[in-house]
Amino acid sequence: MASNVWPPEEMLPGFQQCFQDLCNLIIDTAVLVARACDRYALAKIEGYEPGYLERVVRTSTTTKARLLHYFPQVPTDQVDQPTANGLLDEDATDLDTWCTTHIDHGCLTGLTSAVYIDESAHCPTLPSKISSTSPPPLSFLPSAPDPNSGLYIRSRTGAITKVKIPADCLGFQTGETLQLITRGNFQAVPHFVRAGGASVDGGQVARNTLAVFTQPGLDEIVDRTTGKTYAQFCREVAERFK
User: Fold this and answer.
1) Rounded CA separation 11/133 (Å)
2) Which of 18, 34, 172, 214 has the smallest count of CB within 10 Å of its CB?
3) Do residues 178 and 107 make contact, with C-beta atoms less than 8 angstroms apart?
4) Helix, strand, or coil here: 58?
């Protein structure tokens, strides 16, 4: 596996340490979520290994983290509105404009609250030379200019609901490996990210967040009925996209 590539410390002082600290916090919290999932699975599934998911999340060496940057969208007048109960019509024309509908293939995905930045006011370009002084802090927008922008999930009944993660909270999504481990008692959550009318006064608004994908070790058994390992499951996932 390739090593991480970090920006020079003098360009973004403290970035690497802050990023690693935040990822560790998310993983530590995921361990607590996994513990709760284990209690539920133990009560529902005959022969379930006590503490399995907590052990996987705590000890895995395959967990990955990604900083996600959603580029500014071309402004559009076609923006569909949710209903009064917060649900969105599945026939809306601009649903997954920032990220198409998909499911994660790991166990639990930890998510931070999204940060919105007007890139017309803060141009995302590298300096011509590295300065000894820290770059000025970015001014975050208090929220997305369009309240309908953001992360959406599909329930088991197909209903589409917007997920709002407060700035001081974390969110967790269930993935396909957890669905296998728990024999369908937990379901992988289909989700997408909607841009909507994400612009402000002609600005170029980008969305930024961090996702931490907790995954089993490659040799862990994820399907007890077939003996399938996580490595074998990953190969199956890769085959879907060929």
Assistant:
1) 8
2) 18
3) yes
4) helix
Q: At what angle do helices 15-44 and 52-59 cross, to 10 degrees?
A: 170
Whole-Å CA distances, 9 to 2, 40, 87, 126: 20, 44, 44, 14
Q: What sign has the CA pseudo-torsion 214, 220, 223, 224?
A: negative
Q: Is 206 helix (H, G, I), strand (E, B) or coil?
A: strand
pTM: 0.86
- Greatest alpha-carbon pair distance for the chain in Å reads 62
Average pLDDT over residues 29-52: 96
| Phi-psi domain of 9 (left: phi exceeds 0; alpha: psi -120 through 50; beta: other) | alpha
Cβ partners under 8 Å of residue 50, min gap 6: 38, 42
pLDDT in tens, 156-186: 888 999 999 999 999 999 999 999 999 999 9
- Of 141 and 214, which is predicted with more confidence? 214
Residue 91 to residues 32, 103, 160, Cα–Cα distance (Å): 37, 20, 11
Q: Which residue stretches of the chain are H helix?
A: 15-44, 52-59, 176-181, 230-240
Q: How far is CA 32 from the centre of its chain?
A: 18
Tokens of 84: 């009064």
Amino acid at 110: G
Share of the chain above pLDDT 70, in %: 83
Residue 212's nearest CA partner among 112, 91, 143 is 112
pLDDT in tens, 191-207: 999 987 655 556 688 99
The DSSP bridge pattern shows strands 191-194 and 87-88 to be unpaired
Which amino acid is located at 130 in the chain? I
